[in-house]
Amino acid sequence: MADEALFLLLHNEMVSGVYKSAEQGEVENGRCITKLENMGFRVGQGLIERFTKDTARFKDELDIMKFICKDFWTTVFKKQIDNLRTNHQGIYVLQDNKFRLLTQMSAGKQYLEHASKYLAFTCGLIRGGLSNLGIKSIVTAEVSSMPAYPDTGLHPKTPRSQPELKPRVRCSTNCATQVLR
Amino acid sequence: MGTMLRLRHNKDLFVLTYGALVAQLCKDYEKDEDVNKYLDKMGYGIGTRLVEDFLARSCVRRCHSYSEITDIIAQVAFKMYLGITPSVTCNNSSRTEFSLILDKNPLVEFVEELPAGRSSLCYCNLLCGIIRGALEMVHLAADVTFLQDRLKGDRVTEIGITFLRKLDEKKYRRKK
Questions:
Q1: Which residue in chain B is spatially nearest to A37 when comparing CA positions?
Q2: Where are the domains of chain B?
Q3: Residue A17 at interface with chain B, using a CB cutoff of 8 Å
Q4: ipTM of the complex
Q5: With contact defined as beta carbons under 8 Å apart, do A70 and A58 qualify?
Q6: Which H/E stretch holds residue B9?
Q7: Between the N and C ends of chain A, which has fewer C-beta atoms within 10 Å?
Q8: What is the pLDDT of residues B133-156, one digit of tens each?
Q9: Does A43 contact B20 at a Cβ distance shorter than 8 Å?
Q10: Contact between B9 and A50 using a beta-carbon 8 Å cutoff
Q11: What is the CA radius of gyration of chain B?
Q12: Which fold has domain B1-163?
């Protein structure tokens, strides 16, 4: 979809812009990540507000997390979360096997260290969305790379597939109580 | 209903993200001109890449005049990415200066008014940079600025495109 392209490009420019205009020490002390996360937070709040105007009340925290994984993720990233795990004590791990904001990047190992810059906004997005639904949370993300697909041998000239980036968004909620009235 | 809702919300994502960006820039830069410049530069970066996406999605044929190009920007590109079709006017007899009049502007959907003390802020300056960057990738140099801005109290929002001397005259001969 056309507007997805626009958002992807804007997001990329925002990330590089924040780092380019970073002042002394801001990269090291995490100020850049914080800026991106805060912007995502604002957007997440706004999105959830628009989104849930017409939806039914959520039953419980898990219901909310499922909403994030399905409807919310589909709206923002055109696909659902591939895997949701929880310990039923406030920790949720959302796994996206083809995270849209990273698919454009080369998947070489040297880029993994930069992947966190491209995850900050999304972490904020989730945290902001949850916040407006009454859930206080800490959202972190990590990326692990998958081994390359094995060479089938049928087309020896075909280059090996790039390793996949599998960002895992770990979402730990520390206030499961007062949320749902 | 599900798809329509999602389409609308996806545009919201861009609009809200843009709003968060402008808000952050207002925190980082005291002077309006600095925010405007930053937005223009950012837009330029986006435009140079967006044009590839645009050419891949649309079937525009080679243009032979600046007015054709401006029409395509208004009727195809704006429609494709922002869902609006600004009207086009030509402002000079040599047909190098044009205006895009935006009656509706989705970028400002959630903006009631400019923040206090920010009267010179060109909230949508990203658009100027995008147009400028995109044109440059197809070998056209242009000045793109806001001539009128509803957020500043004008009746309409008007983007002015002034095509400058281009490098390769032969390919893009103007229609008289």
A1: B20
A2: 1-163
A3: yes
A4: 0.89
A5: no
A6: helix B2-28
A7: C
A8: 999 999 999 999 999 999 999 999
A9: yes
A10: yes
A11: 17
A12: Muramoyl-pentapeptide Carboxypeptidase; domain 2 (3.30.1380)
